[in-house]
Specification:
By secondary structure, the protein is mainly alpha-helical. It is built from 15 helices and six strands. The chain has one domain. It has a two-stranded antiparallel ribbon with strand order 1-2. Helix 1 crosses helix 12, helix 6 packs across helix 14 and helix 7 runs antiparallel to helix 10. The chain is globular and about 70 Å long. The termini are far apart.
Amino acid sequence: MDPIVLARIQFGANISFHILFPTITIALGWVLLFFKVSFNRSGDEKWMNAYRFFVKVFALTFALGVVSGITMSFQFGTNWPGFMNTVGAVAGPLLAYEVLTAFFLEATFLGIMLFGFRKVPNWVHTLATFLVAFGTTMSAFWIIVLNSWMHTPAGYELRNGVVHATDWAAIIFNPSMPYRLGHMLLASGLTCAFLLAGLSAWRWLRQDRGPDVMAALRTGVTLAALLIPAQILVGDMHGLNTLEHQPAKVAAMEGNWETGGHVPLVLFALPNEKERRNDFEIAVPNGASLILKHEAAGVIPGLNQFVAPDGTKLHPPVAPVFFGFRVMVGTGMLMLLVSWFATWRLWRRGEPGTVLGWVLVGMTFSGWVATLAGWYVTEIGRQPWLVTGVLTTAQAASTVPAGMIASTLVAYLVVYVALIAAYVSVLFHLAGKGLKAVASPSGAGVSKAGGAPRGGGYAQPAGATAQAK
């Protein structure tokens, strides 16, 4: 295979594996803070037990996120040396800001959050939880700033083919950043919400039906029910922004070949790049024009508009963008139906029931599916550019031989499959253990007045010891 294609696949595999874990921890940190604040306000032990269970999930997820992020960062040098050579004046400081404002906060206070609740005053532990949650969000902010700038670069000038920053406010608040950041944070919230609901439903199905399980389950489905409408709205705004700044990507998403009005909304098709048309198309008349231009005659750019006179394609590969977009939207619609029905069911019946319980278990990692599909649309949709209008993927690629890239790609994939399998199995193993996973060595409680926990642990709710046994 072409070394550039192999390098893209390898980087794609690395970033696909990495993004799974920050997508959980960004929102889970704030959910843990919600559990902790709820305990502080009410003194109800169900919130503390929910915290103690899901803080283990956070720790495992955070560790894998850090390790996979380090591996991914090496590839800036091994696979894409032209990236830093050309845009390092912008990318370098943004990555440094992430380390300074995010990792320092997380590294400093994560230990207190995980292990300090028996050793520090309650308010210090709560503050540490907040700072870790804030750190994960700041980490996402700086990464999204850089990624958005690569899509819609601003605040720079080219000198001898090298990018130099001229306006850091324009760089940070580039045209697509607010939409991309909102879309990603909501995606994280939904991923975390269904993880909460799925693991809690698994515990409920295994007859672990304590108040902490139901509190986490209600939190998960309610959070999902609230966030999915917001995600649909922000996603629509993000799509309109993409139409303005990256029309070729939107053309691929819609499977639209000819520029014009009255463009149908293609529900399903097999994009045929060789013939420049769609096969087996099922479409809603005028749908795309109505959604993107809010009028039936609205003009939508077509893919044939993005072909150079010499035949060179200036648009992304169509099939992965087209299908990735439909997987993302389809998963989002399923999230909407499941979360709203689950919220209604818990409000009316007080428990999920066996069928809904298994549906929620099946949806545990649905956020991963939607997030990966969305990222493939975003990143593949930028091709052939690495930095739009500034640097192509081919210009940034290294001269590493194809055989070397292929061998390391295989090694990465083997390790990643093993780690994903281990991660998922450990999460469900923890959920299967239930209160055993969070039981403290002492039945003594915590001083809600702000003192250190008494007796080395938080109190268990009535009957918890017997249930754990």
